[in-house]
Amino acid sequence: MVLSTTPTIEGHTIREYKGVVTGETIIGANMFKDLFAGIRDIVGGRAGSYEKVLREAKDEAMREMMERAQMLGANAIVGIDLDYETIGANGSMLMVAASGTAVVL
């Protein structure tokens, strides 16, 4: 599966548009990660535990989007957009949404 944030794939012709595909993931941040991230905020540095959660959520949303594209018979997704939002009480959960257009190259 070819994935691109651009509307076309250089060197390839889009033969067929299959439609918009999406993938969504919602992950709760636990209090231990919040505690360690808070300590990082005080002493400086990167919040590795949050970065890992962000990567996992993005990967899951992308995987779900690719599965939906494959079910439509697509071999590529163009125009991919990723959105990150905090939701829930006090922003305690992270939502990652991936969307793009499933195509046949």
TrEMBL record:
Pfam families: YbjQ_1. It comes from the Bacteria. Belongs to the UPF0145 family. HAMAP family: UPF0145. NCBIfam families: PRK02877.1. This is UPF0145 protein PRU_1099. It comes from Xylanibacter ruminicola (strain ATCC 19189 / DSM 19721 / CIP 105475 / JCM 8958 / 23) (Prevotella ruminicola). The lineage of its organism: Bacteria, Pseudomonadati, Bacteroidota, Bacteroidia, Bacteroidales.
